[in-house]
Design a protein that fits this description.
Blueprint: E1 3-8, H1 13-23, E2 31-37, E3 43-49, H2 52-59, E4 68-74, E5 89-90, E6 96-104, H3 107-116, H4 126-140, H5 145-155, E7 158-166, E8 172-178, E9 183-186, E10 191-194, E11 206-209, E12 214-219, E13 225-228, E14 233-234, E15 239-240, H6 256-262, H7 264-272, H8 286-290, H9 292-296, E16 300-305, H10 307-324, E17 328-332, H11 333-336, E18 347-353, H12 359-370, E19 374-379, H13 385-389, E20 392-395, H14 408-428, H15 433-453, H16 457-467, E21 472-477, H17 481-496, E22 499-504, E23 521-525, H18 532-543, E24 548-554, E25 566-570, H19 578-596
Parallel strand pairs: 16-17, 16-18, 18-19, 19-20, 21-22, 21-23, 23-24, 24-25
Antiparallel strand pairs: 1-4, 1-10, 2-3, 2-4, 5-6, 6-7, 7-8, 8-12, 9-10, 9-11, 11-15, 12-13, 13-14
The structure holds 6-O-phosphono-alpha-D-glucopyranose.
Length: about 625
Amino acid sequence: MCGIVGYIGTKRAYPILIKGLKRLEYRGYDSAGVAMISDSGELNVYKAKGKVDNLTEYCSDKDVSGCVGIAHTRWATHGEPSARNAHPHYSRSHNLAIIHNGIIENYADIKTKLQDKGVEFKSDTDTEVLVQLVEYVMVKKNLSLLEAVQVALHQVIGAYAIAIVDKRDPRQIIAARKQSPLVVGIGQDEFFLGSDASPIIDYTDKVVYLEDGNIAVIRLGEEMRVMSILGEEQELQVKTVDIDLGQIEKGGYEHFMLKEIFEQPECLMNCMRGRINVEGTHVTLSAMIDYRQQLLGAKRIVIVACGTSWHAGLIGKQLIESLCRIPCEVEYASEFRYRNPVVTKDDVVIAISQSGETADTLAAIQLAKQQGAFIFGICNAIGSSIPRATDTGTYIHVGPEIGVASTKAFTGQVTVLSMLALCLAKERQTVDDALYQQMVVELTRIPEKMQQALKTNEQIERLAPIFTYARNCLYLGRGYNYPVALEGALKLKEISYIHAEGYPAAEMKHGPIALIDSEMPVFVIATRDRLYEKVISNIQEVRARGGRVTAIVTEGDTQIQKFADHIITLPDTLECFQPLIASIPLQLLAYHIAVCKGKDVDRPRNLAKSVTVE
Ligand code: G6P
């Protein structure tokens, strides 16, 4: 999703802006651009379709001087990906340039009105409408840039994080946000802007996370000011960020995705640290202490999420229902927010999101809040919008996830859901002590078992070329492994562009079985659990139709090899924790198939890491 970078100070802006754009590449984008006020006072805008490298190549013979600038990576919403539609956008006079992340919903109305007044547009974007509107009111009402931005934002419906520069006032950047993230970094005689802190942390650890509906006035030589759209001054809340740069570099791996798959044992230890005691006998979540009454009072739990986080939610549902005996529903946030759901003050809504910025999940939270539910967030990105919108929550603490296909965030989310279910069950006395103890101990052993599961990497790398020919794949699982099948299929789709479907194994006979032939690989999660025998029957149904089966089994299994073409063996664990182990070979499988096919694993086409538009 779009990324914003800005700089104003005494250094040359261009290298800082380009480095910042590269840091934000992980969000997914299709074009990039930069605007700088040059040493001679010109406002130069340069844009290119495709990667940031295309932009730097384009700029190689251009004037990139100047100490103030804004830059952007765009993920197309209105208008095709092209240099013309890329940001920054000039105003009509070329005095102003804007970058924008989000969607202006009433842009068509505003555009028509401006066109009627003679304003001409150079792009198909909603963003250009905003900068033209700012300039129009600036001229018409003889306003300052700040006043004009305030007036324009009043007229706008939608989501935005914006930054605007005016070449007649090169000591100032105006920025604003509503439902799209924006961070300002404060250095010595310099300021930085970013969609998140990653383009900023090289230079300063002092940041201000702009709140919804606020405008930042960033003026060189002065203290930064924050105000509401109405002009009410807000208190400046400067925070210290603590992100390790090494965490966002590849650390010797060929791709971020592979690094993140291999990091999982350590990530889960970080996730459990301080929450499970050293003896491994007890789980405590601070949210459970601070909001005991609200959480224990839940008559129902509703999980809202999107994508991979939604799959984690499906596992959470099974954990919560079986351990806590609280009815639990899992909803796509995008559906929930528009279907007038029944939500009451007795509900606890759990919002799961890696980025903490997913627009639909945020909107689902707002809706549930309005109806009186208590909101619990499970997020990764610290200080992002969702943790700030929720009543309480638990961070998964797996570190920045850069690969667009989510891996470590998924297992982190499942780990937090497991700890939450255990805490709730213990308090509600719906789990007996022996099982509780067994589960807590087993959870602490998961990182070590993941380490073992990661040893399947070489075998999977060898197997991967066999599957590159496939046009369709089927993933089957039951119980706790059904969401694992969904997630395995999603991983393959996302990065190898092979169509894949996840299905509850027993449902296969109600449709997908018709697709099975020797051309369609079928991956079955057949670890040893309550439904093991039934899954064997499902494998036989596939075999009887000439299907090619790759089975994920528990070590010591002797039965399935009779029916499967390939076997991938995993360490044993409790049924409810199997997703934490079984998802690993499926992540590796998707990764190696995509690599064999020569795909851009970390930045798959059309996908965004952080989906800040609905
Ligand atoms: C995008 C990402 C997915 C992610 C989903 C939800 O589609 O590519 O990896 O699962 O958004 O994102 P969230 O940040 O809310 O977990």
